[in-house]
Structures are given as structure tokens and as C-alpha cells.
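Form 7-S
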Amino acid sequence: MRKLGIVPLASTVIPPRSGRSSRTVRSRRALGAALAAVLAIGLSACAPDPVSESFLSGENTGYVAADGAIVEIPVADRGETVAFGGVTEDGETFDSADLAGQVTVVNFWYAGCAPCRVEAEDLESVWQQYEDQGVSFVGINTRDQADTAKAFSEEFGVTYPSLIDVDTAEAKLAFAEAVPIAATPTTLVLDKQGRVAARIIGPIDGTSILSTLVKDALAEKS
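Output:
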């Protein structure tokens, strides 16, 4: 009986005709590059937004550089009054109910946030401008303990109080339904009923815009 031999796989390959091999390789490489480009475009369309990217990277969590997005909410579209509270850096209990009837500016910040440092002087300036006109300012520190927050206030001359929210997130959660805080810094203007009337994402970039938003809220009828 005749035995069947096993023919090596390499011996079954027919050598290409002269001149076709290099062209085929080049064509396949070109096709591969084109497919890679299409894939890259598709992936970029699904890429995380800047807030997600900063969160996922773990660096300067939540801060979106040079955003400055400003949103004003018409009176008819404002939600319910936001009730919030907590303990300040001086250990005092704060309740937003004590600010009823006032326009309130709420600034979310933390000491290691570079743009928070840049905007601190402007926030204080607007606060000084409207302090005697039925306007209150409240900071909400999302990452620091009291000593760090106090050192920041002393360094940058901030005189309005800040709630220390790092352990409980009580104040931040109170705003979650009305306007989720996705970036730091974020500044909110609350109307006389305690509803969110305007939002600035990112540093306030000078005093004029925030001053105008506060003035507009003051001019509204109670």
C-alpha cells in the first residue's frame, strides 16, 4: 500500500509573477492607512467631552480650561428654589433660607484650581460692589478642608464665606437637579426666590459679565 506524504504548506505557494509583489504590498499599505484614518475619525466622534476627559485623567478634576460658557435662564423656565446649606470654613452653620429675598452668587471652587485663583479678586470686587444692595456671595469648596480654604481666602482677600463640602457634597447635591455642576470653577446667580437665573462655566473673566447678571437679577420683580 502506498503511503501518502504530507506536503509542506510553503511548497504549495505559487511565487507571484515578477513586478506584482511590490505593487500589491503598496496597495495593501495604502488601504490600511485609509482604514486607520476612517477609524480615527469615527473614534474622535465618540471621544469623551472635555469634562469627562479631565475627570478620567484624574488631573485637575472637573476643570475645563478657557470655557467661559454663559447661560441665562428666562424666569418662566427656572425650576424650584434650591435649598442648600452646610458648615463654613469658620465652623459656622449656614442655611440658604437666611438669604430669602436676596440675589445670591454661588461660586464652586477649590484652592488648587488655577483659574479659581485668577478669578478670586474679580469675585471679591463684584461682592464689594453689591454687598449693600441685597446681594450675598457664598463659596462652595468641593475639595479642601477648612484650614486650606481659610488660607486661600486670606491670601486672595476673599471676605465672603465658603461652605466646606468635600466630605458630604451636601451643597453640590442640592444643586444637582437644577443645574449639575460638571466643571470647576462654576458660578451661579440665584434670583430673589433662590432659583438659578444664570450660570458661568469656567472663570468669570473680569467683573463686567457677572456684574451685569447680578444687576439683571436685582432688577427683577420679587
